[in-house]
Write a structure and sequence with these properties.
alpha+beta, 7-stranded antiparallel sheet, globular
C-alpha cells in the first residue's frame, strides 16, 4: 500500500486488516455512534461498503461526512477522516469485482451490489 497516512505501521495495517470500528455523528441524535464494520483497500484507496439495504452508518455519513476510522487489529490507531459517497457505476463495479470483495459477491449478485449497496470512499485528514 502506498504512503496514505505517512505512518508506515498504519499504512501496513490498512493494507492487511479487515475489521475496524467507525464513529460517525448520529444524524438524528447528534451523538457519536460507533459500529464495527469491514473495509476494503483497493488500489491504494479505502472503501467502506455493505450489502444492499439501509444502513445507519451510511445515512449518518450522508448527513455529516466526518468519521473516525478506528484500526484495531494489527495496530491500534484512531484516524480522522471524511467519507464521500461513491455513485460512479464504474468505480462501484471495480471495487466489488476486486478479490477483497469476494464475501460481498457471495452474499448477493454483483449487479445488485453495484446498483444498491452503500459505499463510501474514505480520505484521511
Amino acid at each position: 500500500m502506498a504512503n496514505i497516512t505517512g505512518r508506515p505501521e498504519v499504512d501496513a495495517a490498512l493494507a492487511r486488516d479487515l475489521t475496524i470500528d467507525i464513529t460517525t455523528m448520529g444524524r438524528q441524535s447528534g451523538r457519536p455512534r460507533t459500529v464495527e464494520i469491514w473495509f476494503l483497500a483497493v488500489d491504494d484507496r479505502i472503501f467502506i461498503t455493505g450489502t444492499p439495504g439501509p444502513r445507519d452508518w451510511y445515512a449518518n455519513l450522508l448527513a455529516d461526512d466526518s468519521l473516525t476510522f478506528h484500526l484495531k487489529e494489527s495496530v491500534r490507531a484512531d484516524l480522522e477522516a471524511t467519507a464521500r459517497p461513491v455513485d460512479d457505476e464504474a468505480t462501484r463495479r471495480f471495487v466489488f469485482e476486486h478479490p477483497s470483495a469476494r464475501w460481498y459477491r457471495d452474499q448477493t449478485d454483483l449487479d445488485d451490489l453495484v446498483a444498491n449497496a452503500p459505499m463510501v470512499e474514505v480520505t484521511f485528514r
